[in-house]
Specification:
The complex is a heterodimer of chains A (123) and B (109).
Chain A: E1 3-7, E2 11-12, E3 18-25, E4 34-41, E5 47-53, E6 59-61, E7 69-74, E8 79-84, E9 93-102, E10 108-113, E11 117-121
Parallel strand pairs in A: 2-11
Antiparallel strand pairs in A: 1-3, 3-8, 4-5, 4-9, 5-6, 7-8, 9-10, 9-11
Chain B: E1 9-12, E2 18-23, E3 33-37, E4 44-47, E5 61-66, E6 69-74, E7 83-90, E8 98-100, E9 104-108
Parallel strand pairs in B: 1-9
Antiparallel strand pairs in B: 2-6, 3-4, 3-7, 5-6, 7-8, 7-9
The chains are: A mainly beta (123), B mainly beta (109).
């Protein structure tokens, strides 16, 4: 059973960089057919895809966040990470990591999710 | 930008059938996926490729597709089905952008 666990600071100051790590257990992050994704949910709102990464390092980002997002992977630790720069209060959200199962080159669905971690942007 | 449209809320009595719709121009060309999110929990995949049910999901959950609309149907709704439901697909223009619908709150009366 694949499990994902987010970790990182729960409080980030405005203009700083939000950094989160997702640790994958029960399966290798280097296995094919899967991308590894970050998704967020603003309080009381819907889901917003941030981006995903393949174990080789190929990345795809939400165009609305692309200028501020970096997703990286560390296969030796079976982890992948999110960095979101120049944060504001609008970036306050629950951040989920998830495994993306690819059905075509451009289509995926999320079959395993972490429990989510709330990140608050405040001074 | 590409969007998926869901009704904000659906209400049914226990034992009745709930139908949650999701509309989008790319849906005739792209599969849709559905997630259930109970309060305080992470989303759970309940339907993939429009009408395929993952293992462990009760048979009362089913999916269908017609034109630009996909529908998640829950037959014999139970109190435990009360949750938010989100549809998801991908932008068909080749941008690799994943798109979620705005979500539907299912209330079991």
């Amino acid at each position: 059973q694949v499990q994902l666990q987010e970790s990182g600071p729960g409080l980030v100051k405005p203009s700083q960089t939000l950094s989160l790590t997702c640790t994958v257990s029960g399966g290798s992050i280097s296995s094919g057919s899967y991308y590894w994704s970050w998704i967020r949910q603003h309080p009381g709102k819907g889901l917003e895809w941030i981006g995903y990464i393949y174990y080789s390092g190929s990345t795809y980002y939400n165009p609305s966040l692309k200028s501020r997002v970096t997703i990286s992977v560390d296969t030796s630790k079976n982890q992948f990470s999110l960095k979101l720069s120049s944060v504001t209060a609008a970036d306050t959200a629950v951040y989920y990591c998830a495994r993306a199962a690819m059905t075509t080159v451009t289509m995926c669905y999320f079959d395993y999710w972490g429990q989510g971690t709330l990140v608050t942007v405040s001074s | 930008s590409y969007e998926l449209t869901q009704p904000p809320s659906v209400s049914v009595s226990p034992g009745q059938t709930a139908r949650i719709t999701c509309s989008g121009d790319a849906l005739p060309k792209q599969y849709a996926y559905w997630y259930q999110q109970r309060p305080g929990q992470a989303p759970v995949l309940v339907m993939y490729k429009d009408s395929e049910r993952p293992s462990g999901i009760p048979e009362r959950f089913s999916g269908s597709s017609s034109g630009t609309t996909v529908t998640l149907t829950i037959s014999g709704v139970q109190a435990e089905d009360e949750a938010d439901y989100y549809c998801q697909t991908a932008d068909s223009s080749g941008t690799y952008r994943v798109v979620f619908g705005g979500g539907t709150k299912l209330t079991v009366l």
